[in-house]
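User: Design a sequence. Structure:
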């Protein structure tokens, strides 16, 4: 669509087929040509709105919503953590998941876990921690953080459906020693909407890895949690500081409003 407009903030870019490229800038005196992408989705966010040029390019990435981190008998509890902060976000993550399923958008789940012989677990990781149980030990839900064990599965409320991508990862970041980057490229994904646990460990590591690879990342504040609320808060603040140095943050409500084409800013929900 071609619009002639007087002095305004303008999109200086070009649009083609299924995408566009450009940047916002101040209009000069006179007439500006604004190229508006037909498919643009805008989500109210901090430090400023998050724009998705085409929903085909976005993926919901749900990090490590595993029984090992959220349920008793798992890794999180063995490390002496209070699980309630993580359990609180389950309905919100489910809401996002269902919205993405309804709109048939790309969904990626990740699982942190190791091979049964622990050959993919560095000694440093194995030795670290002062918990009652270590990685590979027999816990209340099978061997701690070992792939295929009951406790290593995603919690039943968020079980992936056939067709949804599941990345198993030996590290904290979802890019390290996984196929994630190839999968994103093959799906032409450029924008990641991220939730899951824990905010300052696997979520933040993944977001930083993604940012360095050129992905536009939006963290959903009420769909992520830490065993330590102050770490969650600090992570949110450091991600969006300095004009969004790592990316954007928003709320699930604002993601859903944006996906429905009615970008709503609910300041009360923004932390
Ligand atoms: C941790 C994770 N915290 N998924 N893993 O060890 O954040």
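Assistant: Done.
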């Amino acid at each position: 669509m071609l619009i002639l407009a007087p002095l305004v903030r303008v999109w200086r870019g070009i649009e083609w087929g299924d995408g566009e490229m450009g940047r916002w800038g101040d209009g000069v005196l006179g007439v500006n040509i604004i190229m508006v992408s037909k498919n643009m989705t805008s989500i109210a966010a901090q430090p400023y709105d998050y724009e998705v040029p085409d929903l085909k390019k976005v993926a919901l990435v749900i990090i490590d919503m595993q029984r090992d981190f959220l349920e008793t008998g798992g890794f999180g509890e063995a490390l002496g953590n209070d699980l309630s902060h993580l359990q609180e976000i389950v309905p919100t993550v489910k809401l996002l998941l269902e919205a993405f399923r309804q709109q048939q958008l790309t969904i990626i789940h990740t699982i942190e876990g190791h091979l049964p012989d622990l050959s993919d677990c560095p000694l440093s990781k194995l030795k670290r921690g002062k918990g009652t149980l270590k990685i590979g030990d027999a816990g209340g839900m099978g061997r701690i953080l070992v792939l295929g064990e009951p406790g290593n599965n995603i919690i039943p409320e968020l079980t992936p459906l056939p067709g949804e991508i599941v990345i198993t990862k030996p590290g904290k970041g979802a890019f390290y020693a996984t196929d994630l980057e190839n999968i994103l490229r093959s799906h032409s994904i450029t924008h990641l909407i991220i939730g899951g646990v824990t905010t300052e460990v696997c979520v933040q590591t993944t977001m930083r890895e993604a940012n360095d690879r050129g992905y536009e990342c939006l963290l959903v504040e009420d769909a992520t949690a830490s065993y330590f609320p102050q770490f969650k808060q600090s992570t949110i603040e450091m991600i969006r500081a300095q004009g969004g140095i790592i990316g954007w943050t928003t709320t699930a409500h604002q993601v859903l409003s944006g996906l429905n084409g009615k970008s709503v800013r609910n300041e009360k929900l923004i932390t």
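The radius of gyration is 20 Å. The mean pLDDT is 88.
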